[in-house]
Amino acid sequence: MNKGFLKAGHLPTLFAAFLYFDLSFMVWVILGPLGVQIAQTLGLSPAEKGLMVATPVLAGALLRMVNGVLVDHLKPKLTGALCQVVVIAGLLAAWGFGIHSFAQVILLGILLGVAGASFAVALPLASRWYPPEHQGTALGIAGAGNSGTALAALFAPTLAVWFGWNSVLGLAAIPLAATLAIYLVLAKNSPDCPPPKPLLSYLQVLRTGDAWWFMFFYSVTFGGFVGLASSLTIYFNDQYGLNAVTAGYFTAACVFAGSLVRPVGGALADRIGGIRTLTMMYMAAAAALVVVSIGLPTAWAALAAFVAAMLALGMGNGAVFQLVPQRFRREIGVMTGLVGMTGGIGGFYLASSLGYSKQMTGSYQAGFLVFALLALLALVGLTGIKGRWRTTWGAAAQGARI
Protein backbone atom coordinates (compact mmCIF):
# COMPACT_ATOMS: atom_id res chain seq x y z
CA MET A 1 0.00 0.00 0.00
CA ASN A 2 1.53 3.33 -1.07
CA LYS A 3 0.74 7.00 -0.52
CA GLY A 4 -1.12 7.16 -3.81
CA PHE A 5 -3.55 4.52 -2.58
CA LEU A 6 -4.07 6.27 0.76
CA LYS A 7 -5.03 9.48 -1.06
CA ALA A 8 -7.06 7.86 -3.82
CA GLY A 9 -10.27 6.82 -2.09
CA HIS A 10 -12.17 7.03 1.18
CA LEU A 11 -10.48 5.08 3.99
CA PRO A 12 -13.36 5.26 6.52
CA THR A 13 -15.68 3.66 3.97
CA LEU A 14 -13.07 1.03 3.13
CA PHE A 15 -12.73 0.15 6.83
CA ALA A 16 -16.52 0.08 7.28
CA ALA A 17 -16.86 -2.23 4.26
CA PHE A 18 -14.22 -4.57 5.67
CA LEU A 19 -15.76 -4.65 9.16
CA TYR A 20 -19.29 -5.20 7.86
CA PHE A 21 -18.05 -7.96 5.57
CA ASP A 22 -15.97 -9.54 8.34
CA LEU A 23 -18.71 -9.87 10.96
CA SER A 24 -21.28 -10.90 8.37
CA PHE A 25 -19.04 -13.72 7.21
CA MET A 26 -18.52 -14.76 10.81
CA VAL A 27 -22.20 -15.59 11.24
CA TRP A 28 -22.65 -16.81 7.65
CA VAL A 29 -20.56 -19.93 8.29
CA ILE A 30 -21.23 -20.32 12.01
CA LEU A 31 -23.11 -23.61 11.51
CA GLY A 32 -19.82 -25.19 10.38
CA PRO A 33 -17.86 -24.58 13.60
CA LEU A 34 -20.98 -25.51 15.60
CA GLY A 35 -21.62 -28.52 13.37
CA VAL A 36 -20.07 -31.15 15.65
CA GLN A 37 -22.22 -30.15 18.62
CA ILE A 38 -25.38 -29.63 16.53
CA ALA A 39 -24.94 -33.02 14.86
CA GLN A 40 -24.55 -34.74 18.23
CA THR A 41 -27.67 -33.07 19.62
CA LEU A 42 -29.87 -33.75 16.59
CA GLY A 43 -28.31 -37.08 15.52
CA LEU A 44 -27.43 -35.99 11.97
CA SER A 45 -25.98 -38.29 9.28
CA PRO A 46 -22.83 -37.33 7.31
CA ALA A 47 -24.97 -36.20 4.37
CA GLU A 48 -27.18 -34.10 6.65
CA LYS A 49 -24.10 -32.51 8.23
CA GLY A 50 -22.82 -31.63 4.76
CA LEU A 51 -26.17 -30.15 3.76
CA MET A 52 -26.42 -28.23 7.04
CA VAL A 53 -23.15 -26.36 6.47
CA ALA A 54 -23.78 -25.99 2.73
CA THR A 55 -27.26 -24.43 2.98
CA PRO A 56 -26.15 -20.97 4.21
CA VAL A 57 -23.55 -20.95 1.43
CA LEU A 58 -26.15 -21.63 -1.26
CA ALA A 59 -28.67 -19.16 0.21
CA GLY A 60 -25.98 -16.49 0.40
CA ALA A 61 -25.02 -17.20 -3.19
CA LEU A 62 -28.54 -16.71 -4.51
CA LEU A 63 -29.17 -13.62 -2.38
CA ARG A 64 -26.00 -11.96 -3.67
CA MET A 65 -27.72 -11.40 -6.98
CA VAL A 66 -30.63 -9.77 -5.15
CA ASN A 67 -28.24 -7.55 -3.24
CA GLY A 68 -26.41 -6.65 -6.44
CA VAL A 69 -29.64 -5.17 -7.77
CA LEU A 70 -30.54 -3.50 -4.45
CA VAL A 71 -27.11 -1.87 -4.29
CA ASP A 72 -27.80 -0.04 -7.53
CA HIS A 73 -31.33 0.96 -6.52
CA LEU A 74 -30.93 1.72 -2.81
CA LYS A 75 -27.14 2.32 -2.90
CA PRO A 76 -24.68 0.20 -0.90
CA LYS A 77 -24.92 1.80 2.53
CA LEU A 78 -28.69 1.43 2.96
CA THR A 79 -28.69 -2.08 1.48
CA GLY A 80 -26.02 -3.20 3.95
CA ALA A 81 -27.83 -1.69 6.92
CA LEU A 82 -31.11 -3.40 6.06
CA CYS A 83 -29.41 -6.78 5.63
CA GLN A 84 -27.63 -6.45 8.96
CA VAL A 85 -30.92 -5.75 10.75
CA VAL A 86 -32.48 -8.87 9.19
CA VAL A 87 -29.58 -11.08 10.28
CA ILE A 88 -29.55 -9.74 13.84
CA ALA A 89 -33.30 -10.30 14.17
CA GLY A 90 -32.96 -13.84 12.81
CA LEU A 91 -30.18 -14.78 15.22
CA LEU A 92 -32.13 -13.45 18.19
CA ALA A 93 -35.23 -15.38 17.11
CA ALA A 94 -33.22 -18.61 16.74
CA TRP A 95 -31.73 -18.09 20.18
CA GLY A 96 -35.04 -17.23 21.80
CA PHE A 97 -37.16 -20.04 20.29
CA GLY A 98 -34.39 -22.64 19.99
CA ILE A 99 -33.43 -25.08 17.21
CA HIS A 100 -34.91 -28.54 17.71
CA SER A 101 -34.87 -30.31 14.33
CA PHE A 102 -32.91 -30.67 11.10
CA ALA A 103 -35.61 -28.70 9.25
CA GLN A 104 -35.17 -25.79 11.65
CA VAL A 105 -31.40 -25.87 11.13
CA ILE A 106 -31.96 -25.62 7.38
CA LEU A 107 -34.35 -22.71 7.89
CA LEU A 108 -31.74 -20.93 10.00
CA GLY A 109 -29.15 -21.64 7.30
CA ILE A 110 -31.33 -19.92 4.70
CA LEU A 111 -31.63 -16.86 6.96
CA LEU A 112 -27.87 -16.80 7.51
CA GLY A 113 -27.54 -16.56 3.74
CA VAL A 114 -28.50 -12.89 4.10
CA ALA A 115 -25.19 -12.40 5.92
CA GLY A 116 -23.34 -14.19 3.12
CA ALA A 117 -24.92 -11.80 0.61
CA SER A 118 -22.97 -8.96 2.30
CA PHE A 119 -20.30 -9.63 -0.31
CA ALA A 120 -22.43 -7.90 -2.94
CA VAL A 121 -22.68 -4.83 -0.71
CA ALA A 122 -19.18 -4.42 0.74
CA LEU A 123 -17.28 -4.72 -2.52
CA PRO A 124 -19.24 -2.11 -4.53
CA LEU A 125 -19.25 0.16 -1.48
CA ALA A 126 -15.44 0.12 -1.50
CA SER A 127 -14.80 -0.29 -5.23
CA ARG A 128 -16.61 2.83 -6.38
CA TRP A 129 -14.26 5.03 -4.38
CA TYR A 130 -11.06 3.83 -6.11
CA PRO A 131 -9.54 4.28 -9.61
CA PRO A 132 -8.58 1.26 -11.77
CA GLU A 133 -4.93 1.13 -10.71
CA HIS A 134 -5.94 0.59 -7.06
CA GLN A 135 -8.88 -1.79 -7.52
CA GLY A 136 -6.94 -4.92 -6.60
CA THR A 137 -5.65 -3.45 -3.34
CA ALA A 138 -8.96 -1.82 -2.33
CA LEU A 139 -11.08 -4.87 -3.04
CA GLY A 140 -8.45 -7.10 -1.47
CA ILE A 141 -8.71 -5.14 1.77
CA ALA A 142 -12.51 -5.07 1.72
CA GLY A 143 -12.59 -8.73 0.74
CA ALA A 144 -10.29 -9.66 3.62
CA GLY A 145 -13.53 -9.70 5.56
CA ASN A 146 -13.35 -13.38 4.64
CA SER A 147 -11.40 -13.59 7.89
CA GLY A 148 -14.72 -13.50 9.73
CA THR A 149 -15.04 -17.19 8.90
CA ALA A 150 -11.92 -17.74 11.02
CA LEU A 151 -13.47 -15.86 13.95
CA ALA A 152 -16.39 -18.28 13.87
CA ALA A 153 -14.07 -21.30 13.83
CA LEU A 154 -11.91 -19.83 16.59
CA PHE A 155 -14.57 -18.85 19.11
CA ALA A 156 -17.87 -20.62 18.34
CA PRO A 157 -16.90 -24.18 19.45
CA THR A 158 -15.44 -22.94 22.75
CA LEU A 159 -18.45 -20.73 23.48
CA ALA A 160 -20.69 -23.69 22.68
CA VAL A 161 -18.89 -25.78 25.31
CA TRP A 162 -19.31 -23.01 27.88
CA PHE A 163 -22.87 -21.86 27.18
CA GLY A 164 -24.42 -24.35 24.76
CA TRP A 165 -24.45 -24.05 21.00
CA ASN A 166 -27.89 -22.41 20.83
CA SER A 167 -26.70 -19.58 23.09
CA VAL A 168 -23.86 -18.87 20.65
CA LEU A 169 -26.48 -17.70 18.13
CA GLY A 170 -27.68 -15.05 20.55
CA LEU A 171 -24.15 -14.03 21.52
CA ALA A 172 -23.27 -13.53 17.84
CA ALA A 173 -25.88 -10.78 17.58
CA ILE A 174 -23.87 -8.59 19.98
CA PRO A 175 -20.84 -7.88 17.75
CA LEU A 176 -23.17 -7.59 14.76
CA ALA A 177 -25.10 -4.79 16.47
CA ALA A 178 -21.86 -2.98 17.36
CA THR A 179 -20.64 -3.34 13.78
CA LEU A 180 -23.90 -1.92 12.45
CA ALA A 181 -23.45 1.19 14.58
CA ILE A 182 -19.87 1.72 13.33
CA TYR A 183 -20.94 1.07 9.75
CA LEU A 184 -23.70 3.68 9.90
CA VAL A 185 -21.22 6.29 11.15
CA LEU A 186 -18.25 5.60 8.84
CA ALA A 187 -19.65 4.30 5.54
CA LYS A 188 -20.37 6.77 2.78
CA ASN A 189 -21.71 6.14 -0.71
CA SER A 190 -19.38 7.18 -3.51
CA PRO A 191 -20.47 10.13 -5.68
CA ASP A 192 -19.62 7.83 -8.61
CA CYS A 193 -22.61 5.53 -7.95
CA PRO A 194 -24.26 4.83 -11.32
CA PRO A 195 -27.99 5.48 -11.73
CA PRO A 196 -30.26 2.43 -11.29
CA LYS A 197 -31.29 0.49 -14.37
CA PRO A 198 -34.53 -1.32 -15.26
CA LEU A 199 -34.50 -4.78 -13.68
CA LEU A 200 -34.37 -6.66 -16.99
CA SER A 201 -31.30 -4.72 -18.07
CA TYR A 202 -29.28 -6.44 -15.35
CA LEU A 203 -29.58 -9.70 -17.23
CA GLN A 204 -28.01 -8.18 -20.34
CA VAL A 205 -24.54 -8.63 -18.88
CA LEU A 206 -25.10 -12.39 -19.17
CA ARG A 207 -24.93 -11.98 -22.93
CA THR A 208 -21.23 -11.22 -22.50
CA GLY A 209 -19.01 -14.27 -22.49
CA ASP A 210 -16.52 -12.63 -20.16
CA ALA A 211 -19.18 -12.49 -17.42
CA TRP A 212 -19.53 -16.28 -17.54
CA TRP A 213 -15.77 -16.74 -17.38
CA PHE A 214 -15.52 -14.59 -14.27
CA MET A 215 -18.40 -16.48 -12.69
CA PHE A 216 -16.66 -19.79 -13.31
CA PHE A 217 -13.26 -18.60 -12.12
CA TYR A 218 -14.69 -17.29 -8.86
CA SER A 219 -16.79 -20.41 -8.30
CA VAL A 220 -13.47 -22.24 -7.95
CA THR A 221 -11.45 -19.74 -5.90
CA PHE A 222 -14.14 -18.49 -3.53
CA GLY A 223 -16.13 -21.72 -3.72
CA GLY A 224 -13.08 -23.64 -2.55
CA PHE A 225 -12.40 -21.13 0.21
CA VAL A 226 -15.88 -20.96 1.72
CA GLY A 227 -16.60 -24.64 1.13
CA LEU A 228 -13.53 -25.60 3.15
CA ALA A 229 -14.19 -22.95 5.78
CA SER A 230 -17.66 -24.43 6.32
CA SER A 231 -16.56 -28.07 6.34
CA LEU A 232 -13.15 -28.37 7.97
CA THR A 233 -14.31 -28.47 11.59
CA ILE A 234 -16.46 -31.50 10.81
CA TYR A 235 -13.69 -32.97 8.63
CA PHE A 236 -11.01 -32.78 11.32
CA ASN A 237 -13.45 -34.25 13.85
CA ASP A 238 -14.48 -37.17 11.59
CA GLN A 239 -11.14 -37.89 9.97
CA TYR A 240 -8.73 -37.43 12.87
CA GLY A 241 -10.95 -37.60 15.97
CA LEU A 242 -10.18 -34.06 17.11
CA ASN A 243 -12.68 -32.63 19.57
CA ALA A 244 -14.88 -29.74 18.44
CA VAL A 245 -12.71 -27.03 20.01
CA THR A 246 -9.40 -28.34 18.62
CA ALA A 247 -10.98 -28.94 15.21
CA GLY A 248 -12.19 -25.33 15.32
CA TYR A 249 -8.65 -24.10 16.02
CA PHE A 250 -7.30 -26.09 13.08
CA THR A 251 -10.03 -24.68 10.86
CA ALA A 252 -9.34 -21.14 12.06
CA ALA A 253 -5.66 -21.49 11.11
CA CYS A 254 -6.62 -22.53 7.58
CA VAL A 255 -9.20 -19.78 7.18
CA PHE A 256 -6.95 -17.05 8.58
CA ALA A 257 -4.34 -18.04 6.02
CA GLY A 258 -6.79 -17.80 3.13
CA SER A 259 -8.49 -14.60 4.21
CA LEU A 260 -5.46 -12.57 5.22
CA VAL A 261 -3.72 -13.10 1.88
CA ARG A 262 -6.68 -11.88 -0.16
CA PRO A 263 -5.28 -8.30 -0.11
CA VAL A 264 -1.89 -9.77 -1.05
CA GLY A 265 -3.49 -11.46 -4.03
CA GLY A 266 -5.13 -8.21 -5.08
CA ALA A 267 -1.92 -6.21 -4.66
CA LEU A 268 0.09 -8.86 -6.52
CA ALA A 269 -2.45 -8.73 -9.33
CA ASP A 270 -2.08 -4.93 -9.46
CA ARG A 271 1.67 -5.45 -9.82
CA ILE A 272 2.02 -8.43 -12.19
CA GLY A 273 -1.51 -8.74 -13.56
CA GLY A 274 -4.57 -10.68 -12.47
CA ILE A 275 -4.21 -13.34 -15.17
CA ARG A 276 -0.68 -14.30 -14.21
CA THR A 277 -1.60 -14.33 -10.50
CA LEU A 278 -4.64 -16.52 -11.09
CA THR A 279 -2.63 -18.97 -13.19
CA MET A 280 -0.21 -19.61 -10.34
CA MET A 281 -2.98 -19.86 -7.78
CA TYR A 282 -5.03 -22.45 -9.69
CA MET A 283 -1.99 -24.69 -10.08
CA ALA A 284 -1.13 -24.44 -6.38
CA ALA A 285 -4.72 -25.03 -5.22
CA ALA A 286 -5.19 -28.08 -7.42
CA ALA A 287 -1.93 -29.62 -6.21
CA ALA A 288 -2.81 -29.05 -2.54
CA LEU A 289 -6.30 -30.56 -2.90
CA VAL A 290 -4.88 -33.66 -4.61
CA VAL A 291 -2.45 -34.09 -1.70
CA VAL A 292 -5.30 -33.75 0.81
CA SER A 293 -7.41 -36.30 -1.05
CA ILE A 294 -4.94 -39.16 -0.44
CA GLY A 295 -5.77 -39.09 3.28
CA LEU A 296 -2.72 -37.78 5.10
CA PRO A 297 -1.64 -39.77 8.18
CA THR A 298 -1.85 -36.99 10.78
CA ALA A 299 -4.02 -33.95 11.43
CA TRP A 300 -0.91 -31.75 11.37
CA ALA A 301 0.03 -32.94 7.87
CA ALA A 302 -3.52 -32.28 6.71
CA LEU A 303 -3.39 -28.84 8.31
CA ALA A 304 -0.26 -27.96 6.31
CA ALA A 305 -1.89 -29.08 3.06
CA PHE A 306 -5.12 -27.20 3.77
CA VAL A 307 -3.20 -24.03 4.64
CA ALA A 308 -1.43 -24.26 1.27
CA ALA A 309 -4.77 -24.71 -0.50
CA MET A 310 -6.35 -21.80 1.35
CA LEU A 311 -3.40 -19.51 0.65
CA ALA A 312 -3.79 -20.18 -3.07
CA LEU A 313 -7.58 -19.84 -3.05
CA GLY A 314 -7.49 -16.67 -0.94
CA MET A 315 -4.98 -14.96 -3.23
CA GLY A 316 -7.02 -16.14 -6.20
CA ASN A 317 -10.10 -14.38 -4.77
CA GLY A 318 -8.17 -11.11 -4.70
CA ALA A 319 -6.91 -11.63 -8.24
CA VAL A 320 -10.37 -12.25 -9.69
CA PHE A 321 -11.65 -8.99 -8.25
CA GLN A 322 -8.68 -7.08 -9.55
CA LEU A 323 -9.91 -8.06 -13.01
CA VAL A 324 -13.70 -7.70 -12.69
CA PRO A 325 -13.80 -3.87 -12.23
CA GLN A 326 -11.47 -3.39 -15.21
CA ARG A 327 -13.93 -5.19 -17.49
CA PHE A 328 -17.26 -4.20 -15.90
CA ARG A 329 -16.72 -0.92 -14.05
CA ARG A 330 -20.18 0.51 -14.80
CA GLU A 331 -21.84 -2.82 -14.02
CA ILE A 332 -19.82 -3.56 -10.89
CA GLY A 333 -22.92 -3.87 -8.68
CA VAL A 334 -24.65 -6.55 -10.72
CA MET A 335 -21.34 -8.26 -11.60
CA THR A 336 -20.39 -8.45 -7.93
CA GLY A 337 -23.74 -10.10 -7.31
CA LEU A 338 -23.40 -12.54 -10.21
CA VAL A 339 -19.78 -13.45 -9.59
CA GLY A 340 -20.35 -13.69 -5.85
CA MET A 341 -23.40 -15.87 -6.45
CA THR A 342 -21.46 -18.43 -8.43
CA GLY A 343 -18.68 -18.31 -5.86
CA GLY A 344 -21.22 -19.30 -3.23
CA ILE A 345 -22.64 -22.03 -5.46
CA GLY A 346 -19.12 -23.45 -5.75
CA GLY A 347 -18.89 -23.45 -1.97
CA PHE A 348 -22.27 -25.17 -1.66
CA TYR A 349 -21.12 -27.85 -4.07
CA LEU A 350 -17.87 -28.53 -2.24
CA ALA A 351 -19.41 -28.59 1.26
CA SER A 352 -22.34 -30.79 0.29
CA SER A 353 -20.27 -33.12 -1.94
CA LEU A 354 -17.84 -33.81 0.89
CA GLY A 355 -20.73 -34.95 3.08
CA TYR A 356 -22.21 -37.15 0.36
CA SER A 357 -18.77 -38.52 -0.54
CA LYS A 358 -18.24 -39.56 3.08
CA GLN A 359 -21.67 -41.18 3.37
CA MET A 360 -21.56 -43.04 0.03
CA THR A 361 -17.91 -44.14 -0.10
CA GLY A 362 -16.73 -43.86 3.49
CA SER A 363 -14.08 -41.33 2.41
CA TYR A 364 -13.79 -37.64 1.50
CA GLN A 365 -11.39 -38.39 -1.36
CA ALA A 366 -13.84 -38.11 -4.26
CA GLY A 367 -15.09 -34.70 -3.12
CA PHE A 368 -11.58 -33.25 -2.97
CA LEU A 369 -10.47 -34.77 -6.28
CA VAL A 370 -13.44 -33.43 -8.23
CA PHE A 371 -12.83 -29.92 -6.92
CA ALA A 372 -9.13 -30.20 -7.80
CA LEU A 373 -10.25 -31.10 -11.32
CA LEU A 374 -12.42 -27.96 -11.42
CA ALA A 375 -9.36 -25.87 -10.53
CA LEU A 376 -7.47 -27.44 -13.44
CA LEU A 377 -10.40 -26.75 -15.78
CA ALA A 378 -10.36 -23.12 -14.67
CA LEU A 379 -6.64 -23.01 -15.44
CA VAL A 380 -7.26 -24.37 -18.94
CA GLY A 381 -10.03 -21.82 -19.53
CA LEU A 382 -7.89 -18.94 -18.32
CA THR A 383 -5.03 -20.02 -20.57
CA GLY A 384 -7.36 -20.04 -23.56
CA ILE A 385 -8.95 -16.64 -22.89
CA LYS A 386 -6.02 -14.56 -21.68
CA GLY A 387 -4.77 -13.55 -25.13
CA ARG A 388 -8.08 -11.98 -26.13
CA TRP A 389 -8.47 -10.25 -22.78
CA ARG A 390 -5.04 -8.64 -22.97
CA THR A 391 -5.54 -7.37 -26.50
CA THR A 392 -9.10 -6.05 -26.09
CA TRP A 393 -10.38 -4.54 -22.85
CA GLY A 394 -7.08 -5.18 -21.06
CA ALA A 395 -5.23 -2.97 -23.52
CA ALA A 396 -7.61 -0.13 -22.70
CA ALA A 397 -7.19 -0.32 -18.92
CA GLN A 398 -5.82 2.97 -17.63
CA GLY A 399 -2.91 2.40 -15.29
CA ALA A 400 -3.98 -1.18 -14.49
CA ARG A 401 -2.36 -4.50 -15.45
CA ILE A 402 -4.40 -7.53 -16.27
From TrEMBL:
Give this protein's Gene Ontology molecular function annotations: nitrate transmembrane transporter activity
Q: Membrane topology for this entry?
A: Multi-pass membrane protein
Species in which this protein is naturally found: Azospirillum thermophilum
Q: Name one GO biological process term.
A: nitrate assimilation
What is this protein called in UniProt?
A: MFS transporter
Where, by residue number, does the polypeptide cross the bilayer? 12-31, 51-71, 78-99, 105-126, 138-162, 168-187, 211-236, 242-261, 273-294, 300-320, 332-352, 364-385
Keyword terms: Membrane, Nitrate assimilation, Plasmid, Transmembrane, Transmembrane helix
* Family listed: Belongs to the major facilitator superfamily. Nitrate/nitrite porter (TC 2.A.1.8) family.
GO CC, alphabetical: membrane
